[in-house]
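so my prof wants the structure for this chain in the tokens format not the other one, which i didnt know existed until like an hour ago. anyway here's the sequence
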Amino acid sequence: MNAHDLRAKNESELREELSGLLREQFNLRMQRGVGQLPTPHDLRRVRRDIARVKTVLNEKQNEGKAS
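here's what i got, hopefully its the right format
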């Protein structure tokens, strides 16, 4: 996932994407806690994807305020 693809989505799609990523992050953290996380780099990927989605959401909100 990259920011260019995210900017093409509308705000409701971004919010759905964010909730899915937060759910995935929770599941990965639970797997890590139990010691069953097969790929530890997935946590870092999900964390960065969450940051990307939040950044694009903030850009869209600020864009609306500037108009």
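also thought this was worth mentioning. Residues 18 and 54 are 8 Å apart (CA to CA).
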